[in-house]
Specification:
HAD_sf, HAD-like_sf, three-stranded antiparallel beta sheet, globular, 231 residues, 3 domains, 9 helices, alpha+beta, single chain, four-stranded antiparallel beta sheet, Haloacid dehalogenase type 3, 16% strand
């Protein structure tokens, strides 16, 4: 029986060879029906409805659940940055259309993802309202959905409930590992969540390559400093 488990699609699925019915776990099938319908709608529209510059300049990464736009240009270049910035706004607009038919849905959605404000401002897409203006039903739906931006690399819509932590926990469960110790090497906020999970549960340490995002590098350096101080 395999002792290897692969967490893929940022935690929405887990593949563990040789474990019968648990070999392939599609964790996204356990999400609320309303959330799955949002993703179904965006998947249907994301390329056919895209503006020409996005359709020509991006491709859809082969995800089974998450919706990830990748540039048709070298990652990190000015062209990649421009098309991913446009793609982020486009994904937010699609998301807004799926969660509400109200004319204010776009502004509500842009306001909800305030951490993306610098990109939205660059694209003249800053909201005209605040988070406090978002109706509760719309806020409830948006609270289930993660929108990620990777500079000049990708724009993605995913589930907040299903992240790499959920995938790692599912993998450990099917492998029947009760007291794990993990080394988490990562470069983005999705990896940072796993590092923080490992720290919280005392079951691992984090590491980062030199190209990792600033937040990840700072976290790993701080954790290393604390460990040296403790020793």
């Amino acid at each position: 029986m395999s002792v290897v488990s692969i967490v893929h699609e940022a935690g929405t699925a887990v593949f563990t060879p040789g474990h019968g019915a648990q070999t392939k776990q599609l964790l996204y099938q356990e999400l609320e029906r309303e959330t799955r319908l949002v993703f179904d709608e965006i998947h249907t529209r994301v390329l056919p409805d895209a503006p020409d510059e996005i359709r020509r300049g991006c491709h859809l990464q082969g995800n089974e659940f998450n919706i990830t736009l990748k540039p048709n240009f070298e990652t990190g270049t000015g062209k990649a940055e421009a098309v991913i910035n446009q793609g982020l706004v486009y994904l937010l607009e699609l998301l807004a259309d799926t969660v509400s038919s109200d004319p204010m849905a776009g502004d509500w959605t842009m306001a909800h993802y305030a951490e993306l404000d610098s990109v939205l401002a660059n694209q003249d897409a800053s909201p005209s309202c605040s988070v406090d203006d978002i109706p509760e039903p719309v806020e409830t739906q948006l609270n289930r959905i993660d929108v990620a931006y990777y500079h000049a690399d990708a724009a993605e819509v995913g589930s907040l409930k299903l992240n790499k932590v959920a995938g790692v926990e599912a993998a450990l469960e099917v492998l029947d590992i009760e007291d794990p110790f993990s080394v988490i090497m990562g470069d983005s906020k999705t990896d940072l969540r796993v590092m923080r999970w490992a720290e919280e549960h005392g079951c691992g340490i984090g590491a980062a390559p030199t190209h990792a995002s600033q937040a990840v590098v700072e976290y790993v350096e701080q954790a290393d400093t604390c460990a040296q101080s403790a020793s």
